[in-house]
DNA sequence: ATGTGCGTAACGCTTTCGGGTGATGCTCGT
DNA sequence: ACGAGCATCACCCGAAAGCGTTACGCACAT
């Protein structure tokens, strides 16, 4: 009976991660939490074999959550999930007791491999490895152009205006729009902008 | 007699902060509040030397709370507490009158240092970041219905679908949409969603 | 060399949006 | 009693958006 707890404040990331780790061989149960506080609150009653925890969360935040969790239960195994460039957070997290970290845009295969390894070896600690954005896991990978178009949308620009901004024809902007909608799973530009914010692709 | 007010909607974060600032030399009294409304309500009767306030809270939210507090009492000193991701919120808060900000996962030492400094120097203030004119000023106040419609948009629902969700006619949804566009200064639904995220009205 | 992904562009077609305007009823506070 | 604000609904109409499809050149990897 192997259980994993996915902790992320973003429902989207949570679901994606949940589905991803559920496919790891030997994993019987995947639960989710939306905050470090929730993990701590549930820990005594609902202990799991491995915790995947986001670094950046409202409230306690990943780092402090790991610190507290490990200080109450040194056998707790935690892998931190990080978006990018917050290496300070990762270093702190590892220093606080996390076994290692994974980039959120790691490939599904890498995620599964890491989880398998962490489950197989209780003493395992991850050597940080940088992974190429690949076919899944979490944040959809948009091209530079697609992000530019998405940003234009988030500033209330019409396709024609975005085209003028980027020296493109309106039809080309529409093509980029269509493609980024598909990648994000968005039904329209408003949805796309929302998903862009939730994934941290735009601000 | 130096007093500090900690304002955060999360009880755990509130307690953590309370304990942390209580250890700062010279601090005699630490009170807590769970919402910006509560701070405003209690301000005249229960004035404090420094307020630590969370950016992201239900109801008024940190930004608007600071704005109102400072507009009623310009001597009020507020430090915003924030997560790494909402830099816009920080900038808005500082522009609205907050003296500075702290990351929630800042170290205890950092927290104490910042609080000490703010207490020692009543004029202490972070240099406000340059903001677009549209972003300065008061947070747009949307009605409950308007927020529901905005949320629907952020989930990619069409006006007709939002209407079915909320048991309204499509025309009514359109009216709400038009009004919230005007309030937010949005040019279309994508822009409105983006502004909703930037103001912390939706997530 | 062959495929795959990206960037660019176009055309037709349907759906949806957004603005303008007007209207009714309700609940506040003054 | 009155206006202000909110919620509700309706109609028209032009302007966008969104979708399917096709196509070409280019880079990069298998």
UniProtKB/TrEMBL annotation, chains A, B:
Pfam families: GerE (PF00196), Response_reg (PF00072). GO terms for molecular function: DNA binding. The modification 4-aspartylphosphate is found at residue 54. This is Response regulator transcription factor. GO terms for biological process: phosphorelay signal transduction system; regulation of DNA-templated transcription. Residues 135-200 form the HTH luxR-type domain. Keywords: DNA-binding, Phosphoprotein, Transcription, Transcription regulation. PANTHER family: TRANSCRIPTIONAL REGULATORY PROTEIN NARL-RELATED, TWO-COMPONENT RESPONSE REGULATOR. Residues 3-119 form the Response regulatory domain. The keyword Nucleus does not apply. The keyword Transcription regulation applies.
């Amino acid at each position: 009976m192997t259980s994993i707890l996915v902790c992320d404040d973003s429902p989207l990331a949570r679901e994606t991660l949940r589905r991803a780790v559920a496919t790891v061989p030997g994993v019987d149960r995947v639960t989710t939490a939306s905050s470090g506080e929730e993990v701590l609150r549930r820990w005594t009653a609902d202990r799991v074999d491995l915790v995947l925890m986001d670094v950046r969360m409202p409230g306690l935040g990943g780092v402090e959550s790991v610190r507290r969790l490990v200080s109450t239960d040194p056998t707790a195994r935690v892998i931190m999930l990080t978006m990018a460039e917050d290496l300070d957070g990762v270093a702190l997290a590892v220093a606080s007791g996390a076994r290692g970290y994974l980039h959120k845009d790691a490939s599904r295969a890498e995620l599964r491999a890491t989880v398998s390894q962490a489950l197989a070896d209780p003493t395992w600690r991850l050597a940080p490895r940088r992974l190429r954005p690949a076919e899944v896991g979490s944040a959809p990978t948009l091209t530079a152009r697609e992000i530019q178009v998405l940003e234009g949308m988030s500033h209330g620009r019409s396709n024609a205006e975005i085209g003028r901004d980027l020296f493109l024809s309106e039809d080309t902007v529409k093509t980029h729009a269509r493609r980024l909608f598909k990648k994000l799973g968005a039904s329209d530009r408003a949805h796309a902008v929302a998903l862009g914010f939730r994934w941290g692709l735009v601000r």
